[in-house]
Design a protein that fits this description.
Elements: H1 4-17, H2 25-37, H3 45-49, E1 65-70, H4 78-85, E2 90-95, H5 110-126
Parallel strand pairs: 1-2
Length: 127
């Protein structure tokens, strides 16, 4: 997703609307982490995140861009949408259950994902 900040803001807004007594601690941690990393407050974090929208500049990318995606990605379809928007040289790696790397950021399948990524990098370096 080229507008990743907007996508995360939307998710954080949903989390903030959940009553604190039923909100999982992991979601509280994620919210506090974003607040800390962006120097924001709980009231301003969503507006701060919305500033991270690359939609207007994605066409300006002019280097090889490798997009990694997984069939069990929590943001299904967003990586492919980002890939399709790219006008530069690009590669798309889709990880599925057979690779064991189908989760977000290829969690649990780092060795396989790293091997595939580095093979692709090597291919482009040798050209």
């Amino acid at each position: 997703n080229a507008n990743w900040g907007g996508a995360f803001a939307k998710r954080l807004e949903m989390i903030q609307k959940m009553p604190k007594e039923v909100r999982p601690a992991q979601l509280d941690f994620m919210l506090e982490d974003y607040i800390y990393k962006h120097g924001a407050t709980s009231e301003s974090i969503c507006n701060e995140l919305r500033k991270f929208d690359n939609t207007d500049i994605i066409k300006d990318l002019d280097c090889l861009t490798i997009v990694m995606d997984g069939t069990s990605e929590m943001t299904q379809g967003e990586a492919k949408e980002f890939y399709d928007m790219l006008e530069c040289e690009k590669e798309y790696l889709l990880f599925d259950e057979d690779s064991g790397s189908q989760m977000h950021a290829q969690m649990g399948g780092y060795a396989t994902a790293s091997e595939m990524l580095l093979d692709l990098v090597e291919k482009h370096l040798i050209q």
